């Protein structure tokens, strides 16, 4: 029963509370609502069958590439050959058992819903801010909507992707949230950006 | 230096961990101590092209075979080690 | 005041105040500190490094060797700042350097009188013996006498930013060539980064009176800059210097964001470090004018002609009333013409080139074929000129402008090892083989006339854009005014009066180079090290080529044979803070906080760094007098009641796949494919050389799924090792592996009352020994959240570890504390954890030290003989199986009250404290509440055969020598009764 679940603690929530909900909109920060996150890795030689199964189950077009693809409440972020982060909107804390069962024999599914803290960055200044940390070309031609990358930002491992035009999400390991936030705040200020939180 | 990871694309060298010569192959279990000593300790050190193992630690976490010229750092090819082994 | 009434690019509507060496002056927006000093008739700006000779401004650019000042005061004071590149701001404060007590009267100038002593190789020759005096006496003395500016000694109060850039074309330098290149490529649609070290774009166009399309060149520059600013794919970085070229088309650049302000605005970084990846680069950094080598060429008042031109034309600041020119290049004639146009008296123009007359100069006394042989005055008052016929005359002049030709500024182009070669056409070195992707344009390519530079820029810009797939029409070539570029080879006037300086900043003269050659230091590299030429903060920008010309002359070689040196990054000094960026003080490296961190803070935890993690070290209670009391209480609580410890930082890796068990069998010395589902097993993994890599427990969660833990320190290394094994050694295995360290918050609940505590929390779970024995594991749910329970024990007590997803970790630890309240559950930290494990003889980081084998640590019996595993063969080598090896044992002080020290060496009793008697060392020590005394773990030669023997623990660093008894490393409950209770 859903109401028995403990509320998950958002890793960035205490920091976002310090921001104003109004501003010039050039940098808007938020934490996506609690969602399921899992590492999905194809079993040996099962990549094609896995893609077929996921298409059938979730209606998603699996790409074995550093891409962000989404269908309904499921999204996949390519993190390595035959490896993805699966995102599931509105998932319960024990959600990962379901895809693990559905993909049994085709993929190993490792729940990481708590392992990653995800920060969403929107606004015209978001790409600039990200490029200060990631040594990745964030030009819209080089990193368009649907692009994803596993890299490092400010010495912190990060997975980032562009969800929709000028809306990016960055997943970092949860324990780094405070350090990452400190870097975000300092770097935004250093580049003339005043972050606001989404209302 | 930039390394063109087959999965992630062109990335700065600081994302990678260097291991060394990709040529030595782990001997069979019964190969004996001399063969293992060779495998563990002895490395060629060519001035010129060499195939090396690099790990994309801050990326896709894949081991790569990087063909690099030690004189110029020019990288001729990068493959996933898993595929190179096949 | 020496400011022209009109003209120049300064903004006379914005007067600025500044202070130099304690005196107040005025300048204008658009001035540099140097131009403002000139406008105020300040002619003495520094003292030289070695001889403390008075020095004036030599140049108007970044190559300045003399005018090094300390800019700002207090923590922001920056020594060795070049006055020529400091943009004037209101309230600027600067001080001259390397003088005592004052710039005008410097006691250290006595060094100049002793100058015969300070010849090339002086330090090598003088301070060779005795060596012991070097550190204590010579070096401090030399550093005091021959120094540049001093650091403030205070922490840098400013913040530094870092940025990454990617472009089709990087243009370095926004002079006429760079502007033309950026314009051509930018119009074609290429992504262009244009870097200019100044705020104003235009380069030489700002300092010269040349015309483009019939209008002043600086207006053309402004129009191009405006157009470039409007192009969306063009990024202009002003006040930015490219300081290095790195492999694979990577560049380093420093953007001086706030150096032109008294201090950065709130939040603003002082500087920004750029790493730029450029598919193509055009190096259009211009050229640096070279001095002429003649006696007295360092006297204040002797300046570069291009600098005089820049001060007069750009800044309307006239450095002298009567200016003489000594030129071997046509550009010097243009400077004379510019001076006349500005109404400045030109005392003479001396050009040693016979018959050179690039332009008519009415009213200027010409000395064709003449040379300057001497300079006079404390600050220049007159010069000696030898006319073509040999007659020497004195000419009154307060400034002597020298124009010795131009050296292409290709510095960073040599960073990757391409050696410049001599060009007879321009009498300088040129770069024929720039780094991959780089082209040179304009003066940097040795093509000096304005028409050539713009033509080069347009052509190279178009070519680069086309290479990147951007086709466009080349902008039309503009008309430029006539620009003669004839030049002679580097010029040396032999036999003049006084020293002829080559390196002004390091005080290297022509005679130093002659001496160096006589003593056999004849390669450019030897010359550099022996004389320190080119090794000062200016890195020889004005001196290198002249020195190599002299070297060639003195050694009877052609300069093309002598060659020149390479340059390493950085092109200009870069603040260390810029490299550190955000990462200093508390942000030095990222910090990892466990889910229970906030709870631990509330409990009064003191934290210790474990890699990037913050771990609770202990939880002091009010009234406790020291850490030992706290830690002992925590350890006792675990032995007698129940304690709670956050063990989330242990590395956690999940392996899945049909062959997961097979892989684990090859990774560990013991077997895991035989482990039952729902059971855990301790394992040890070796490196391939047979030494222990890491240890931990592995739990089988399902037939094809394992959960293994690593030590906190080795988590990343083990993950990398597993990836190596499954991707390279055995890619045929079906195994997937991922770090889940961050997914699970995990807490140890340890002590005889731990079962009762858990039962409060999880009343429906059967935790009896029968249902859930030692090394059992289960997956369950707690308040709807997945939970893992392991019956593991590091303390040797009845103990469990509970894991929940980290988002619920805080809730779990609070719930555990709540459930444990009736049992007086006690939080314990890493110190108590250490005490408990030492009491049990468990090896940890101090024992897994990269030198120990499994057998050394007592795990020999675990080493399977029925399978292959990593390290098996090499672990059997005689050296690793030698019975003489130090092995893990326990020690206790014989007198039971002495304190033990980690790191102490073990020696037999009754022998001297020398290395030959060393038999091992103490790895870990603790005060054991159970044993009521200090205990230790140690690695001792043949230790297991020596139980009961007495040896000495000798610590020469702390000066302790304690007689200890050798015992089993397991001090508490050797039978494991409590563990299985």
From TrEMBL, chain A:
<protein>
    <submittedName>
        <fullName>Sarcosine oxidase subunit gamma</fullName>
    </submittedName>
</protein>
<dbReference type="InterPro" id="IPR007375">
    <property type="entry name" value="SoxG"/>
</dbReference>
<dbReference type="InterPro" id="IPR027266">
    <property type="entry name" value="TrmE/GcvT-like"/>
</dbReference>
<dbReference type="Pfam" id="PF04268">
    <property type="entry name" value="SoxG"/>
</dbReference>
UniProtKB/TrEMBL annotation, chain B:
<dbReference type="InterPro" id="IPR038561">
    <property type="entry name" value="SoxD_sf"/>
</dbReference>
<dbReference type="GO" id="GO:0008115">
    <property type="term" value="F:sarcosine oxidase activity"/>
</dbReference>
<dbReference type="Pfam" id="PF04267">
    <property type="entry name" value="SoxD"/>
</dbReference>
<dbReference type="InterPro" id="IPR006279">
    <property type="entry name" value="SoxD"/>
</dbReference>
<dbReference type="GO" id="GO:0046653">
    <property type="term" value="P:tetrahydrofolate metabolic process"/>
</dbReference>
<protein>
    <submittedName>
        <fullName>Sarcosine oxidase subunit delta</fullName>
    </submittedName>
</protein>
From TrEMBL, chain C:
<keyword id="KW-0560">Oxidoreductase</keyword>
<dbReference type="Pfam" id="PF08669">
    <property type="entry name" value="GCV_T_C"/>
</dbReference>
<dbReference type="InterPro" id="IPR041117">
    <property type="entry name" value="SoxA_A3"/>
</dbReference>
<dbReference type="InterPro" id="IPR028896">
    <property type="entry name" value="GcvT/YgfZ/DmdA"/>
</dbReference>
<dbReference type="InterPro" id="IPR006277">
    <property type="entry name" value="Sarcosine_oxidase_asu"/>
</dbReference>
<dbReference type="InterPro" id="IPR042204">
    <property type="entry name" value="2Fe-2S-bd_N"/>
</dbReference>
<dbReference type="Pfam" id="PF01571">
    <property type="entry name" value="GCV_T"/>
</dbReference>
<dbReference type="Pfam" id="PF12831">
    <property type="entry name" value="FAD_oxidored"/>
</dbReference>
<dbReference type="GO" id="GO:0046653">
    <property type="term" value="P:tetrahydrofolate metabolic process"/>
</dbReference>
<dbReference type="InterPro" id="IPR041854">
    <property type="entry name" value="BFD-like_2Fe2S-bd_dom_sf"/>
</dbReference>
<feature type="domain" description="SoxA A3">
    <location>
        <begin position="498"/>
        <end position="581"/>
    </location>
</feature>
<dbReference type="GO" id="GO:0008115">
    <property type="term" value="F:sarcosine oxidase activity"/>
</dbReference>
<dbReference type="InterPro" id="IPR029043">
    <property type="entry name" value="GcvT/YgfZ_C"/>
</dbReference>
<dbReference type="InterPro" id="IPR006222">
    <property type="entry name" value="GCVT_N"/>
</dbReference>
<dbReference type="InterPro" id="IPR036188">
    <property type="entry name" value="FAD/NAD-bd_sf"/>
</dbReference>
